[in-house]
Amino acid sequence: MSLESVRAWLAANAPELRLIEVQESTATVESAARALGVEPGRIAKTLAVRAGEQLFLLVARGDARLDNRKCKDELGSRPRMLGAEETLELTGHPVGDVCPFGLNTPLPVYLDRSLHDFDIVYPAGGSLNTSVEVGVERLFELVAERWVDLCRPPEPQA
Asked: CA-based, 20 to 30 A from 25: which of 37, 44, 53, 111?
């Protein structure tokens, strides 16, 4: 169901976007980066988060980490990741395939500023082996309510 909902959503809202299907799993940032031949930061991971009474999807660069302090400062509460069952029920996508397209329930989508490091990113595409190639600004136009600063960038390599 998840892949079909993404395909239908893309066809209706962004037919120019390319849905990429690969043989390998794209369920984790590392496996998606390897399968797509891109750096892990370009994988746009989508997290289902609750902060106080707020429930939202956060899309961030794949190698960034959700920062409790930044979230508390910006949203007033510590973030909590939704469990697998609640994520599936609300989004229609199982953990590992969560993306901001073709959602079961309309949810606010926030894009983390960490995505500004790239022009093109690759969010999940609704199955364990699909991704969508999309420009960061186009992603914002299509799904986002606002930009936020909730993640820590990766540590620089020595």
From this structure: 111
